[in-house]
Amino acid sequence: MRSSIISFHPALQETLDRVLVGEPLSHAEAHVLIEADNTELPALCVAAKTLRERYKPHTVTYSRKVFIPLTTLCRDKCGYCTFVKSPGNPAARTLTPDEVLAIAEAGQRVGCKEALFSLGERPELQHSLAREHLRYLGYPTMTAYLRAMCEMVLTQTNLLPHANPGTLSREEIAELRDVNVSMGMMLENVSDRLTQRDQAHFGCPDKIPAVRLATLRAAGKLAVPFTTGILIGIGENRAERVDALLAIRDIQAEYGHIQEVIVQNFRAKPSTRMAGYNEPDTNEMLRTLAVARLVLGGEMNIQAPPNLTPGEYGRYLEAGINDWGGISPITPDHINPEAVWPKIAELRHVTSERGYTLRERLAIYPEYTRDSARWLAEDLRSRVAMWIDTEGLVKHEETRW
Q1: pLDDT tens-digit map of 345-393
Q2: 0.90 exceeded by the pTM?
Q3: Domains (range + CATH), the chain
Q4: How far apart are CA 139 and CA 122, in angstroms?
């Protein structure tokens, strides 16, 4: 069975045809695809969209979330980050329980279902200020405090926590599993080269690829629905992007817990080491998204953040994505504060223009709600079930905003 894709190179066409009949890409084939000439980009996108529509037709999803930046302190020093603040900065702080609850309650009032906790990685190992914050709050580690705040949100609101604290041990993941419907950590890349001097992850012990891969595997062993992804434009080459996607595919094949893969484009920010770096253009995102779909297969949920490419993000639907990620009606994207979230009405219009229906999902994808006994702690199962319809999507979506 051959596809209707027109390609200028028979070898590339042959590869795409094999993917479309269910054969997985080899490592070598994936590397060839990512380096395809720009004239071949339409063929890659058509193949990726065809594969996506065989498994996930008609619907594009998003999660209505509230963003809770638990602490802006971190022991890592990524070259592109403005979320993290040094101890001397007045914005270097850790939210109190009252502040966390106020954000969560504000989100609940506007129909949010997800409480996304983001925070710097293990700041108490590096900064005395973080240790002072924890002593004042009465917790030994930031992970312990995170668990307590997730539990508070669960018991005092109807929101469902999704924690994104970075690298974790198996014991820490187990500690958080009972109070999170899903968790996340961007793999970003698997190249050790990026940890060298003058590279994006120099001075970042938590960005060592082996450490991040160990977190992904530990989450798989504990059956935690997990979000991960790659960050493109931070000094990696195309082959290194593919290596990261293949690593994700291998872990997913072993454990089945990776519910979503994000392909996120780097945005240059003033006052960072990488302020002068070129940002990936839309075509580079399309190329990477299409290859991500072809590598990861039609069943994977693949997301690209719409706020990082305003005005053009609708084109990503032509490269095989099926999700827009978390969108907040009240809190900014604290990781990319300059990038305003699109309104849900705009997102729905852009999605429908390309022939799809926008639907709200929870922080746990439908595939994982269908076997909640495996993927969710017992106390969370009824909380999830109250929100969803027979498709596993939100049954009564808040229409405001």
Answers
A1: 999 999 999 999 999 999 999 999 999 999 999 999 999 999 999 999 9
A2: yes
A3: 54-63+181-385 (3.20.20.70)
A4: 13
